[in-house]
Amino acid sequence: MVIKFKYIRHADSRDISRLAEILIYTKRMTYRPIYQNDKVSFGEMQVLPLAKELTESKDLLDTYWVYDDEFVKGLIRIVNDQVAELYVDTFFVRQGIGKALLEFAVEKKGAGYLWVLEKNSNAISFYLQNGFMLSDEREIVDGTSEYVVKMVR
Questions:
Q1: What's the total number of domains in the chain?
Q2: Residue range 44-99, pLDDT digits in tens
Q3: Cβ contacts of residue 24 below 8 Å, gap of 6+?
Q4: DSSP annotation string for 62-102
């Protein structure tokens, strides 16, 4: 493994609790201001059911890679050539973890595109700074009035 990716490894069963914790917390912090739906943020999104899903589905767990520098600080989910998810624990943002995970996805896994909420300006800015460009494609998020936009490398 190239030295710049030395903290990135494939997720496994020992990471499930941490994955679920990061995913639920960062999604709440990111998406609650956009969707303004507490029923989803605090009712449907729960750590234990997500951890159970990751435990029961090896195929799902196999799509995750983690940034592990003493403990898991961030994660990326790669499906084929798409970055499906990228989250860094709030306590460790702006430390190059997201950039390292994204570079890993592009350089080592051939990821070439992703979808991001149109109102998630922080994420869009991050992806633009890291070589992605907005495309003309956008789709509505099922069951909402919000849109996602496609970004390509």
A1: 1
A2: 888 999 999 999 999 999 999 999 999 999 999 999 999 999 999 999 999 999 99
A3: 45, 46, 47, 50
A4: TTEEEEESSSEEEEEEEETTEEEEEEE-GGGTTSSHHHHHH
Q: Which two tokens stand for residue 115?
A: 């979808």
The CATH number given to whatever domain includes residue 146 is 3.40.630.30
d(CA 89, CA 82): 21
Residue 87: which of 97, 103, 105, 74 has the closest Cα?
74
Which residues have a Cβ under 8 Å from the Cβ of 147 and sit 6 or more positions away? 117, 118, 138, 139, 140, 141
From CA 111, how far away is CA 133, in angstroms rounded? 14
Cα angle 108, 61, 72 (rounded to 5 degrees) comes to: 70
Helix, strand, coil percentages, rounded to 5, for the chain: 45, 25, 25
DSSP code, position 123: H
